[in-house]
Amino acid sequence: MHVVIFANGTIDNPESIRHYLAPCDLVLCADGGTRHAHALGVRPDVVVGDMDSLDQDLHDELGAVGTEFLAFPAAKDETDLELALLYAVERGATQVTVLGAWGGRIDHELGNVLLLAHPGLAGVAVRMVSGRQEITLIRRELTLYGDPGDLLSLLPIGGHASGIVTAGLRYPLRNERLCLGPARGISNVFVSPDPVVRLRSGLLLAVHTRCSRP
Questions:
Q1: What is the dihedral angle through the alpha carbons of 195, 200, 203, 205, rounded to the nearest 10 degrees?
Q2: 35-82 pLDDT, tens per residue?
Q3: Distance in angstroms (rounded) separating the CA atoms of residues 29 and 78
Q4: Which domain holds residue 77?
Q5: Where are the beta strands (DSSP E) in the chain?
Q6: Do 180 and 160 meet the contact criterion of CB atoms below 8 Å apart?
Q7: Domain of residue 191, CATH code
Q8: I need a labelling partner for 168 at 20 to 30 A (CA). Which of 31, 84, 98, 150 fits?
C-alpha cells in the first residue's frame, strides 16, 4: 500500500511532484502541508496534526467534501509529520513518499530526516523527496533506481555502519565501515541504473541526487 504524505515544508514547483501521486492508495497531509495538496487540486483523505498551520477556509472546504481530520493538541511530544507517518503505518502502509519535508527551520529539517530511523517505521519503505533529491534509510539492503551519473551519498546515523558492500557505484565499498562524523560517504556516482547497497550492522541514510529531474 503506497501512501503519500504532504509535509508543511517547501515545494517550489508543485507540478514537478505530481507523478509521485500515481499510483497512490492514500493521501495524507501533515497540518499545513494541506496547502501543497490543494495547489495540485488533490483532496487529501486525512489531515493529521494540531491544525495550527491549516487555513480555516481550506479546513472548511475540505471538510465539506469528506476529508477526515485527526486533530491533536499543540502541546505534544510528536511532530505533525511524525504523527502522519505513524498513522500511515496504522493504515497498513508498506511504502510511504513524503513530499515537502524540508524548507524553513533547520531543526525541523533534521528532525524530519531522522524520523526515517523511527522504530515504528521499521519494515516500511519510506522516502523523502525534494526536487531532484530523495532520502531513504538503509537498515540492511537497498536497490536504488536512477541513471548513470546520478549521485549517491551514504551517511551513517546513530553510530558507525559496518560490513558495507556496494555494486553499481564508481567508488565501491567492499565489506567496509563508514564512521559517524567523517564525510567519506559523500558523492559516490551511479555507473548502473540500479546500484545496490548492503550492510551488516548500523543504519545508513542514502541521499540520491538525480542528474536530471524525473
A1: -10
A2: 999 999 999 999 999 998 888 999 999 989 999 999 999 899 999 999
A3: 15
A4: 2-131
A5: 2-6, 26-30, 46-49, 68-71, 95-99, 125-130, 133-138, 141-143, 151-156, 161-167, 174-178, 188-189, 196-198, 204-209
A6: yes
A7: 2.60.120.320
A8: 98
